[in-house]
Specification:
The chain is of the alpha+beta class. The chain has a six-stranded mixed β-sheet with strand order 1-2-3-4-6-5. A hairpin with a 2-residue loop joins strand 1 and strand 2. The longest helix is centred in the middle third of the chain and has 15 residues.
Length: about 160
């Protein structure tokens, strides 16, 4: 996760924003406890991780402000795509797509009809290629400087 944040955000964020993004990004252990987090290995090395959530928290790790563990109603609310990270040595190998497809399938099986996420600027084009649309753009203010994010949605 740290390598993905530090290397893959270059060209999209300033060095100050990359550092500040660590206050809002990271792993939410509830995803693991809920069984909604996936890891992909390549030759015994972690190539990527990510998943989805049936909980209201849109983004952020265990340390992030604004967490909401409330369970979502699949009939009226969107599942969340969460904590998507690809190791920099494994980008453009289908790792992110495999994780995203797995998350979408699992959310669909639980009755969710829509998904949403807080996408980084580095990830936005990838998610658009996967059928997500930008609903809004905003800034995470958990860190020392604001970090741009986009709420992206998809109908299953």
């Amino acid at each position: 996760m740290a390598l993905a944040i530090e290397r893959l955000q270059r060209g999209y964020l300033t060095s100050e924003q990359i550092e500040a993004s660590k206050a809002g990004m990271g792993l939410d252990a509830l995803l693991i406890e809920d069984g909604t987090y996936f890891c992909v290995e390549d030759g015994g090395e972690l190539a990527g991780c990510g998943g989805w959530s049936r909980r209201a928290t849109l983004y952020g790790g265990n340390h992030s402000a604004g967490r909401d563990p409330r369970l979502l109603d699949p009939a009226t609310e969107r599942a969340r795509i969460r904590a998507m990270y690809t190791h920099p040595d494994h980008v453009r190998k289908g790792v992110g797509r495999l994780i995203l497809d797995s998350a979408e399938d699992a959310a669909r099986q639980e009755g969710f009809r829509e998904l949403e996420m807080a996408a980084t600027m580095a990830g936005k084009a990838f998610y658009e290629r996967c059928g997500y649309a930008v609903e809004s753009e905003w800034e995470d203010t958990n860190g020392a400087v604001p970090v741009p994010l986009a709420t992206m949605t998809k109908t299953l």
